[in-house]
Amino acid sequence: MIKRVPKLYCHQLGKFKTDIQVPTHELLAKLGIISYPHSGLVHWGKTGLLIQDKINGIVRENLDHLGYEELKLSLLSHKNLWLQTGRWHQPDLFKLQNDEYLLAPTAEEEITEYVKRSIQSYKHLPVGYYQINEKFRAEKRPRGGLLRGREFLMKDAYSFDIDETSALKTYESMVNAYHNIFREIGVPYVKAQADSGDIGGDLSHEWHLLNQNGEDTVFTCDSCGHTSNVEKTIAYPTEEEIKNSKGGEEVAVKYFTTEDRDTLVCAYYPVNRQLEPKFMLEDIPDLDLKDKRLQEEIILAFEANENEFSKSVVRVMDARLNSRSNFPDFPINFTNKSMITTLTEVPIVLARAGEVCGECEEGHLQESNAIEIGHTFYLGEKYSKPLNLTVEVPTNDNGNTLESRFVKMGCYGIGISRIIAAVAEINRDDRGLRWPASIAPWEATIITDDASKVEAVESQLMQIDCRLDGRDERFGYKFKASTTMGIPLIIVLGKSFPHVEIEIRGILKHGWEEHLKSLNKEIDFVWDIEYKDGTPVKCFVEKDHLTFVVKQLLRFM
Asked: Locate the Aminoacyl-transfer RNA synthetases class-II family profile domain: which residues (predicted)?
């Protein structure tokens, strides 16, 4: 039996506009995909759940193929684990029960404890788990609907390996799975080298959908192709910029110390640029970036250190500065000149479009706005060490002696609700949404003036993910509803039946034209296509070939 559209599907269609000026999060709500009971919270309607199911299915298929097992951890987490990992005092946690519990924003602590209780031997490794459920964040200014709320739907996966070599192989296998997942979803994406942030770890990548309205910024080199987010993009000034520098540019300075407090680090950079202190870690690995003291306090404390032999100064000059730049006065009277080191041509500010790529030092950086939809982290011992997740591993082939080793971890997130918001934003036009076939609520809407016509092609329709709009409404209303919702195809069983009209709403991908030419050499029936401004908008086919034509169209949507 053919399924029908949801009862309240687009039932307020005549009460709102769909043009591009309407914010996407409002359009999603007006179409009943979601609703907002309060700022930062979301209810999911039937069509929203159908889209979720499609994305979840793609995710599950790829992670199951890797051997990960799905589980479901509690949404509540006790503070004990978070105190051990040092994350209990983060400001964006929802805490309950007199600060004894929190609503989980992520699950590194709980999954580590779960595995600690589960594995009995190193032979149980490697192991991987994932879950798809709600997460919570005490967002102060929720905005953009699903893009930045207090509640969001997320896939989080975790891997556990016996050593770093195998853990990095696991990381790469997950990266490959992410490529497969986002290719199947069907919207252009990029993988960007990223900072690990509060999650921690030594290696991480963000996954973005490119969009001019995105809040994130990524840079891509036009030569080597390296892509990174703005916090990880190293850039040098162009030769033209250096050549045109007249000197006298104002210079800003910020002071740091090393972790032992014996070295004062002075970072000099153009006053009109933004300093990124993490860029200095390669040259000064023990730079203390967690120091919360005021600039004056750092300088006074360094001056108060009476051990002149242990004190030193490192001056770091951004690559955009030169000897003619207008440097500020040195803040202290440091007489031990031999203990002053100056590092020049070090890029320590955030990149700008057009600058030279710091990765290959040949190409130039292209800037894009993007929406983050996923993040992969290699964690190493970030959580296994404080939570004491260890295994006893043989130190020789005989297995006579054992050593305790911390398990190496990785974690991998995909924002399911963010994908829905991002794809809706990227693919929409003045007529409404346009879902890729892979994640559309359904692939085709059936519209007819006679139920018997549906029965005549029911066996074919059962092979398609379709829904019948059998409501007592005009044809035009049903057309507009399916078009606005972004269903890829509309199958019309109308006056021309047994000839069927197929309205194309989805976006046909590159390669469609070549595929069509190849098909026309093989098929033995007439398949007419109507174009508008060079774009296919309708197909006409005899009913016996309906399934074949629909499946060919969906392959490229």
From this structure: 48-436
Question: Domain 432-556: which CATH class?
Answer: alpha beta
Rounded Cα distance between 140 and 127, Å, is 37
Specify the CATH number for 50-229+367-423; select among 3.20.20.80, 3.30.930.10, 3.40.50.410, 3.90.1280.20. Answer: 3.30.930.10
pTM: 0.89
Q: How far is the C-alpha of 538 from the C-alpha of 491, rounded, in Å?
A: 10
CA distance linking residue 413 with residue 156, whole number of Å: 4
CB of 112 within 8 A of CB of 389? yes
- For residue 409, the cross-strand partners are 160, 380
User: Does position 326 have pLDDT exceeding 90, yes or no?
Assistant: no
Asked if residue 335 has pLDDT above 70, the reply is no
| Structural tokens at position 345 | 């041509």
> Measured between alpha carbons, how far is 292 from 256 in angstroms, rounded to an integer?
10
Going by C-alpha positions, the residue among 296, 291, 285 that lies closest to residue 257 is 291
User: Three-state SS across 464-527?
Assistant: CCEEECCCCCCHHHHHHHHHHHCCCEEEEECCCCCEEEEEECCCCCCCHHHHHHHHHCCCCCCE
Q: Is the peptide bond before 498 cis (omega within 30 degrees of 0)?
A: yes
Interatomic CA distance for residues 6 and 461, integer angstroms: 18
| Helix segments in 67-188, DSSP class H | 79-85, 108-118, 164-185
pLDDT band at 198 (very low <50, low <70, confident <90, very high): low
Q: What is the pLDDT of residues 343-353, one digit of tens each?
A: 999 999 999 99
Burial, 130: exposed, middle or buried (Cβ in 10 Å; 0-12, 13-18, 19+)? buried
